Every structure is written in structure tokens, then in C-alpha cells.
Amino acid sequence: KMIFDQFWYEGEVSILFADTNLGKSILAVQIGNSISKGMPIKGFKSETTKQKVLYFDFELTDKQFQNRYSINFENSYSFDDDFLRVQINPETTSNSSLSEEELIIKSLEETIIKTNAKIIIIDNLTYLKNETEKARNASPLMKLLRALKNKYDLSILILAHTPKRDQSKPLSKNDLQGSKMIINFCDSCFAIGESQKDSKLRYLKQIKVRQSEFKFDTNNVALCQIDKPLNFLGFEFLDFSSEREHLKE
Asked: Hey, what long-range contacts does 224-227 have (CB within 8 A, 24 or more apart)?
């Protein structure tokens, strides 16, 4: 079943990547929120039922998160009880012989068992592995995540960065940091691009597909703008467009 249109299906390890400050976390929280409330994001299909979502947030502090989902830190947005935002406790130390990555994966697993959640969003891959751009470092991590997926029948969305890229070229799998190995281990992959016509516009494009066909390809990207009508910052679907129109001349 579709979780987020044809970008991410149930049972998939999917990767969402983009350059810094293009709204990866904004879109990921919006996807998680829509699943926890059982309501699709306007303009995008969803076939999955309302259920628990574990959102591992290694990016934002509580205050930064509150700022995005409130009006000047007041009138906070009401998230569903099924949306569980999880953070690492920085004061937790361990005398374990495990590496930091293995400890994080272990605590991910413990949280999954405790909550019995099937939808997992990890924001982001760089926190789990500081050297993800080095393929040999990325592959054991992706193997661990795939093993978790198979063991607990999960659907996992992982956020990742793209290094500085040529804005005149279409988004491709080569833009994902550590792309060659990481792309092999995921079932699907999609990206956010910035429109060079208007800095407020973003477009979503499928990069790798396993379950279906390419719907959001270079000739048919989903054009959106980031908007905050009240106390929820999110992507608003505008139209379908050609990627070429939004690249640098």
C-alpha cells in the first residue's frame, strides 16, 4: 500500500534526500503526521491506515521543533498521540563494547519493540554514520536497517543529504551522498529540488522505484511551496511540472 503516493510504499526502506535547508525535515514530519492522523497530504495519495509513527529526530532541538509547529511558541499544533518524536539523550553513556552506531541501532530496536510501531522515520542518516559518503561505511549501516525492517516488518524512511551539486543538471542518484552503495540498499528513493525560478518553490522527484512505475519523473515532478497558514509548517502541492523549467540556465 502507498504510504506517501508512489514515493514510499509499505515494507520499503526509502530514502529522501536534498540539499541543506530545502525542507527534508518539514516534509518528513508532514508525512509522519498524515499517517498518525490517517489523513493523506492534499495532492498526494495514501492507502495506509492510521497508525503509530516513530520519528527519530537527530536534527532539531525541542525549541526549534516548537517554533515550526506553533505561532510564536504559542497555540501549538496538536499532533496525534500516534506521532512519537524520539530524541537521543546526550547524557546517556555506556561502557558497552559496541560502537556509537551499533548503540543507536540497538536503542532504535528497543524503541520499536516497546512501541510496536511499524512506520519509522530517521532524520537523518548523517547522524547515524558521520562518514556515510564513504561507501564501505554506509553499507553495514544500511544492512543493519534492512535487517531491522525484515525482522519487525517495518517501513523505513531515511533522510539524507546531497553534497553541493550543479543546479543546471537534473537530480539523479549520483547526487546522494555515498550514493552508489546506499542506493543499492534502499527500495525506493526520492529527492527535493529547489526551483531556480522562484526560491520559495520546491519540487519532488522519484529517483529509484521498485514497487511501481515512475510517476514523478523529470517530465512530471510535483511542484510545491512551503507554507505555514497557521501553526503547521508544510509542503503545499501546487501542480505538476517539468524539472527542466526549474533548473539553472
From this structure: 224/43, 225/200, 225/201, 226/23, 226/26, 226/200, 226/202
Q: Which residues contact 72 (CB under 8 A, 6 or more apart)?
A: none
| Inter-CA distances, 215 with 2, 63, 143, 206, 243, Å | 13, 37, 28, 8, 13
SS (H, E, C) 81-149: CCEEEECCCCCCCCCCCCCHHHHHHHHHHHHHHHHCCCEEEEECHHHHCCCCCCHHHHHHHHHHHHHHH
**Burial of 248 (C-beta count, 10 Å sphere; 0-12/13-18/19+):** exposed
**Residue 28 falls in which region: left (phi positive, over 0), alpha (psi -120 to 50) or beta:** alpha
Distance set, CA 14 to CA 8, 28, 169, 248 (Å): 6, 12, 23, 28
Query: Which residue(s) pair with 83 in the sheet?
Result: 53
| pLDDT, tens only, 30-53 | 999 999 999 999 999 999 999 999
Contacts of 48 (CB under 8 A, 6+ apart): 1, 2, 3, 10, 35, 119
**Under 8 Å CB-to-CB from 231, ≥6 apart: which residues?**
69, 70, 71, 75, 76, 77
Model confidence pLDDT, tens digit, residues 93-135: 556 677 777 788 888 999 999 999 999 999 988 777 655 455 5
pTM of the model: 0.93
